[in-house]
Amino acid sequence: MQETGYALSRKVEMGFEEAEKRVREKLKEQGFGVLTEINVTKTFKEKINADFRRYVILGACNPKFAHKALILETEIGLMMPCNVIVYEADDGKTVVAAIDPTSAMGAVGNEALKAVAADVRKGLMAAVLGV
């Protein structure tokens, strides 16, 4: 697991499709649903006729944690859902990464959000590590 200050990421020894399938399963096991999906490769090709590596952004949400966070900070919705990405690395391996919610929510300055962010981080980390 690599932590960058804003992301939790892991390079895996499996193909893109399998990694995407597994991260979806692991997110579900942790109580997250995928609300949005952006196929970056397809979007770049359609909108600007640019080729790009296989790359998908999954907007994941755990309703229980989202509810708690919104009660504590109404505008925290600007930072939801929690993005999880899957992409092909230059070496042919696949990277699975998730936003670090403690960094994102920490920027808000509401101390009460720290516990929620820690719980969300735990679930996202388990999902990424489980792939």
Features:
alpha+beta, 44% helix, 6 strands, TATA-Binding Protein, 131 residues
Under CATH, the topology is which? Answer: TATA-Binding Protein
Sheet with the most strands: spatial strand order: 1-2-6-5-4-3
Strand segment tally: 6
Morphology call: globular
Beta-strand content estimate:
25-35%
CATH superfamily: TT1751-like domain
Helix content: 40-55%
CATH class division: Alpha Beta
SSE class? alpha+beta
Residue windows where pLDDT falls under 50 for at least 5 positions: none
* Rg measurement, Å: 15 Å
Q: How many distinct helices?
A: 5
Number of domains: 1
**Biggest sheet architecture:** 6 strands, antiparallel
CATH hierarchy: architecture: 2-Layer Sandwich
- How far apart lie the N and C ends? 11 Å
